[in-house]
Amino acid sequence: MSFQVEPWDEHGGHELVPYVDGVRLLDLVSTYERAARFDVAGQYAGLVLDHFNYGDLTEYLTGEPGYAFGDKPGTIALLGCDCGEVGCWPFLAQVVLDNDLVTWRDFAQPNRPKRDYGHLGPFTFARTQYLKAIRTLTEQLE
After folding, report:
1. Calpha distance 47→45 (Å, rounded)
2. Minimal CA–CA distance to 113: which of 70, 61, 67, 84?
3. Is 139 helix (H, G, I), strand (E, B) or coil?
4. 3-class secondary structure per residue, 12-72
5. Which tens digit of pLDDT belongs to each residue from 25-70?
6. What is the pTM assigned to this prediction?
7. Rounded Cα gap, residues 45 and 30, in angstroms
8. 75, exposed or middle or buried, with CB in 10 Å at 0-12, 13-18, 19+?
């Protein structure tokens, strides 16, 4: 698990892209949506940092109260629209922390609430690894 800051092709900005087992979450989701034959599959980008005010990145990526994007506590946008606006086409996940693990689950596309992502994930990470990935990211952004 890692987070990478990558160039955002459209406007020269930067996007925050999560990786799961070395694979971009963008690619995992797009592949899943195409296989499920969802309309408008794969219209995602990472979180475009130049457009998205995430506040405290550690609190956001751990789903702290006050950062919820959806109805469930701990739900955040892991991806946004390829136009750069996270709210246009967000890909949501509930972030669940326990003593030793962090889990991304209950994936959703709020603009298509009937989509079933039940066979995507959940993705579970060692809590120490997850927090280290966030620390590495925040140091990179400083």
Report:
1. 6
2. 70
3. helix
4. CEEEEEEEECCEEHHHHHHHHHHHCCCCCCCCEECEECCCCCCCCHHHHHCCCCCCCCCCC
5. 999 999 999 999 998 766 899 998 877 777 889 999 999 887 777 6
6. 0.92
7. 10
8. buried
Please report which confidence band the pLDDT of residue 13 belongs to, taking 50, 70 and 90 as the band edges: confident
Six token digits for residue 55: 């506040």
Residues across the chain: 142
pLDDT in tens, 78-111: 999 988 888 889 999 999 999 999 999 999 999 9
9's tokens? 């092709």
CA distance 27 to 62: 22
Q: Are 121 and 109 in contact (CB under 8 A)?
A: no
